[in-house]
Hints:
There is one protein chain. The chain is α/β, with parallel strands linked by helices. 47% of the residues lie in helices and 14% in strands. The protein has eight helices and seven strands. The protein has a seven-stranded parallel beta sheet, sandwiched between helices. Strand 4, helix 4 and strand 5 (134-139) form a beta-alpha-beta unit. The protein is globular, with a radius of gyration of 18 Å. The mean pLDDT is 97. The structure holds NADP nicotinamide-adenine-dinucleotide phosphate.
Amino acid sequence: MLDLGIAGRKAIVCAASKGLGRACAMALSRAGVAVTITARTVEALEQTAAGIHAATGNKVTVVAGDITTEAGRQATLAACPQPDILVNNAGGPPHGDFRDWGLDEWNKAVNANMLTPIMLIKATVDGMCERKFGRIVNITSASVKSPIPILGMSNGARAGLTGFVAGLARQVARHNVTINNLLPGPFLTDRLRSGIEFEARKQNVSFEEMLEKRSASNPTGRVGDPEEFGAACAFLCAKASGFIVGQNLLLDGGAFNSTMG
Ligand code: NAP
């Protein structure tokens, strides 16, 4: 296995009992990183921690709580006060029609997908700069680059985060602290399953038919495996990735059709 040069480092991986967060925590743990993982549901979180520890033998700490609240973030930072790596993640906003969303729904989405990562970056980035090593990866979405009609709040809130970190990434890079975003296209997680169910209901087809349609429409002929996402996250956190700064890496099997960029 490729040596990422980060064994012994400490990471906070937010929203990591399932899906993409879990895959990132697993890949970092495989690289020898002591991970602190968070989620709201204790049982699933503990199960995931046990699974990661069993697979890698490395230390896994759990913090149960809502990362979109101040209390959830403080508990996470108390468990891992000086992280070398921060993976920002939270549940995505609901699917639907923007006409059905009021200020409360928008505030929730902006809080979860823009302000929460910014608050965690604020709490950790100066320490990383002082220690001359830091890797921050924000899990955003392919919707930042190519808007998804039924995910208006994701399109909007995540674009705000992307704009903010584009500026900050250039201010901290001289301290060997990098900030980059990973933009998932369709990865087979609970979140994607609920999106497929939503579309299947709308089109009056079965879940399986919708998944097949979704897979066939991708250049790879399939949807992504979360493990592939975790590997990309660990790569961005590698010691040798210090010159990758302020990038938005789209992991979508080539679904976004462009010659470059
Ligand atoms: P998932 O399979 O539903 O997993 C979400 C994880 O986040 C769970 O561990 C969940 O545990 C935790 N979580 C959710 N809200 C939380 C909160 N407020 N505080 C702490 N933990 C929380 O979702 P996923 O597919 O991995 O998606 C991760 C992110 O990527 C989401 O923002 C999603 O919108 C985005 N995304 C995913 C895809 C995809 O294809 N999968 C594509 C584009 C974007 P608890 O519920 O127990 O808290």
